[in-house]
Amino acid sequence: MVKGPGRAFCIILLDFDGIYANQSELCLRADIVISSEIREVKYMCSPSKLKEIGTLIPSKGRFIAFLGGGEYHHLSLLFLKRVKIPFFLLLFDKHLDALKKGGEFIRCDSWLNCALELKNLLGVIFIGRRERRFGKIHIMPPDGLKITRAIKDKAVYISIDKDILDVPLTRWGKGWLPLSELLRTLSFIPKDKVVGVDVCGEPEELCLWKMPESERINLEIVKALEPDLRGLRSFGHGRFFFLPVSIP
């Protein structure tokens, strides 16, 4: 993957609904934009479809991938499968997407159960209000020090669904976590241990009035993960790939 000058992460936009066309600043910062009309992916997809999408995305290097709405959160599995070393998943989400799997399909409400089967996944740290543990899942409050102690010196993959935030952005309603708390928690994570990041939870396509706030949050997340940047305007634009593809 090609990163902009001085950047630790390649920025990828999976723009299956055209949602990021309304976020011009984020588009300027992107290194790879995949714009396509891919059917049979929203809400759920088959393993073979997930593999097809994977062929469009370079597999080397660290990245921040923007997936679109929360109905695409199951695409996290595509990136998680690429992690070849033991790692923890740090998951910010209003919902624990661990419903019972239905057949072979990977769904946006059950993808975590598929992820739990990955041999390199050491455990899931799910950000919640009350601490509890079951199996590989450890629900923890957004306490950066406590999270870093749990991760120890292991690699970490970060997945963020913005429906957890206390702003009414998504179709799933308002969450409980202030953006400032999300950013503060991210600031504690050693950036050299982060193998990848994905972000979803965009507004619905017709909710254009929500786009400026959604883009602002996306850019704040990028800034929090790029510790050497003095501001977004200091980004180089890098190399920009626009890939209009169609998978039936």
How would you sum up this structure, described in words?
The chain is an alpha/beta fold and 248 residues long. It is 23% helix and 24% strand. The chain has helices at 24-29, 47-54, 76-80, 111-115, 144-151, 179-188, 211-225, and strands at residues 10-15, 32-36, 44-45, 63-68, 87-92, 106-107, 121-127, 132-134, 137-140, 155-161, 194-200, 241-245. Residues 229-248 have low confidence and may be disordered. Helix 5 (144-151) packs parallel to helix 6 and helix 6 packs parallel to helix 7. The strands form two sheets. It has a ten-stranded mixed beta sheet with strand order 8-9-7-5-10-11-4-1-2-12. 40% of the residues are buried. It has one domain: Ureohydrolase domain (Arginase, Chain A, 3-Layer(aba) Sandwich). It is built from seven helices and twelve strands. Strand 8 (132-134) and strand 9 form a beta hairpin.
